[in-house]
Amino acid sequence: MTGLDKVVAITGASSGIGEATAVELASRGAAVVLGARRTDRLEVLARKIRDDGGRADLLDVDVTRRADLERLVTRAVDRFGRLDVLVANAGVARIAPVSDLDVDDWDAMIDVNLRGVLHGIAAALPVFRAQGRGHFVTTVSTSGLKIVPAQAVYAGTKNAVRTLLEALRQESTDGVLRTTSISPGFVRTELVDHVEDPAQREQAQQAMAALGIGPDAVARAIAFAIEQPDDVEIGDLTIRPTRQG
């Protein structure tokens, strides 16, 4: 185990990028506080980390509820004495043309992808300010960089988060706060498994299977950003397969 002496809270930690990030950071010495709705998976993950000599705690977290993010931050501080990094990774994707008017899906993406990040900022920022340092890392997406049909609202939420973090960065040039946006391309995760339209779901799953890189690649990028000295900020990282267009 290496010497990454950080306390890191991670949302969406029960699978995919969040799970891989927890394993990667814990293997480097960080204490991780895992948040997600599927606590059964979190318990398995936390046990694995502890069995490998790492430090982990867990909490049921629904990022659409502001109080859950407050509890996650409080748990980190109570359990490990501080919170150095919040990795806002929870996200949902619904793929459909705007003309389908899937308003419920729009609301779900706005609530999780955007409002969930805002809830994390609201919970952690006062702690970071009181400590004199802190780091927000947010999983965005290449969908916000290359706009394609059927992803308008999903890409819109991701671009909103990218804009939010850049504005927060510009408001926080006193050396206390760091912000990092990670934009993954095709990564082998469960993100598209809940797309309702069967044809679009199959198409997305096939693309992910054919092109997708492992979530551990994104986890290493997150670790890279976190491990920088406090006076160095990695603002944006794009991580995608070499064959992705």
From TrEMBL:
Pfam families: adh_short. It comes from Amycolatopsis eburnea. This is SDR family oxidoreductase. Belongs to the short-chain dehydrogenases/reductases (SDR) family. InterPro entries: NAD(P)-bd_dom_sf, Sc_DH/Rdtase_CS, SDR_fam. It comes from the Bacteria. One of its GO terms (molecular function) is oxidoreductase activity, acting on the CH-OH group of donors, NAD or NADP as acceptor. Coiled coil: none annotated. The keyword Kinase does not apply. Keywords: Oxidoreductase.
